[in-house]
Each structure stands twice: as C-alpha cells, then as structure tokens.
C-alpha cells in the first residue's frame, strides 16, 4: 500500500489559548484581563531567559489586539533596541498613556538591569512586571502527553524522550512534530513508535 509522507507543518500561530502555562498562570491571567476585560493595568513588562515564552506572548497579544481593534502595541526584546529606538519607545509609552492605549514589552531582565536609558527603564518599571519561567522537562512532557491524549493518540515515553533530547525544544515546534507524527501514523496505519518518528524526521529533512 502506498504510504503518504507528510511534511511537518509549521507550528500554530501563537495565541494566548495555546500558550503552555507552566508556572506562568498569573501572567497569562493578567494579559487576558488587560486585553479582554479593559483592566486598569495597561502597561505590562515581561522578562526572562530565552525560551520562556516572551515572544509567543508578545505576538499573541499583538494578534489579539489587532483582531479586537484595540489600541495596544507589543514590543519584543527591548534589550536589543538601539538608543534611537529606545527614545522612540519612550515617546510611544507617553503617547499610549495619554491616549488610553496599552503596551506590552519584553526583555531578558528586569527594566533596571539591561542598561536601558534611565527614562525608559523608569517608564517600564511603572507598570506591572512579570518574570516568565521556562517549562521544565517534566512540564513539557506532561503538556505533550495531554496534547496527545486530546488527539486520542498513544505516545510512548521513548518518543517523548527523543523529542526533548534531539529536536527543537520550544513547545510550538514539539507540538507540531507530535501532530505530524499522529497524522502519519493514521495515514500509514502504523503505531506511533520511535522508528516511525525517525523515519518521519528523515523524510521531512529530505524535502
């Protein structure tokens, strides 16, 4: 029987609903309140190490705000901004404050610890500030198991272990791989196994 070789599809677009929470429940709760319930907290600063979900949340907030017609702007990786860009962000902060808009900004450390202009660092510290915590391997494993169960998929531990050891470790990429593996398993009528995953990855890499 001819088997269809499926490409691994791009990860789903970031949203607040597909963000894997881990220890960041309070942060997600506040972002939803700000965007969906017109909460008084209109300036939010997110910080943490690479891979903790900052970019996911910034992109999700921008997309949601645009769909709702909100006057909100999200700015990622503020620690990488040049001096003139920091001045522009400072001016933007003041404009949004005057107009009743909202601003969500992310960086790799607390506002006062990134070498930003003092005026900008002060503005960012005025709002709510949340440190984002990366998912542990145990939390990633449980999240992937929950996702597989929701699809009615039996996901062996050795497949999970391989994904976490050898593939990109961000959750969107891991979930996209699991989804592709499930689809190929159904199409080829073969059980989900480590050899099947390796074959899928090999075929995807050769495309």
Task: Give an overview of the whole structure.
The chain is of the alpha/beta class. It has two domains: 25-131, 3-Layer(aba) Sandwich (Rossmann fold); 137-206, Helicase, Ruva Protein, domain 3 (Orthogonal Bundle). The chain has helices spanning 25-36, 54-68, 83-99, 118-126, 137-150, 157-166, 171-188, 194-206; strands at residues 43-47, 72-75, 102-107, 128-131. It has a four-stranded parallel β-sheet, sandwiched between helices. Helix 3 links the parallel strand 2 and strand 3. Helix 5 (137-150) packs parallel to helix 7. The longest helix has 18 residues, at 171-188. The protein starts with 24 loop residues before the first helix and ends with a helix. Residues 1-6 have low confidence and may be disordered.
Q: Judging from the principal axes of the Cα atoms, what is the shape?
A: elongated
* Number of beta strands: 4
The average pLDDT is 90
- State Rg: 20 Å
CATH architecture of the largest domain: 3-Layer(aba) Sandwich
The poorly predicted ranges are: 1-6
Give the percentage of residues in beta strands: 5-15%
Sequence of secondary-structure elements: HEHEHEHEHHHH
Give the full name of the CATH homologous superfamily of the largest domain.
Answer: P-loop containing nucleotide triphosphate hydrolases
CATH class annotation of the largest domain: Alpha Beta
Query: How widely separated are the two ends?
Result: 21 Å
- Assembly category: single chain
- Give the neighbour order of strands across the main sheet: 2-3-1-4
Question: What structural category do the secondary elements indicate?
Answer: alpha/beta
SS element count, helices: 8
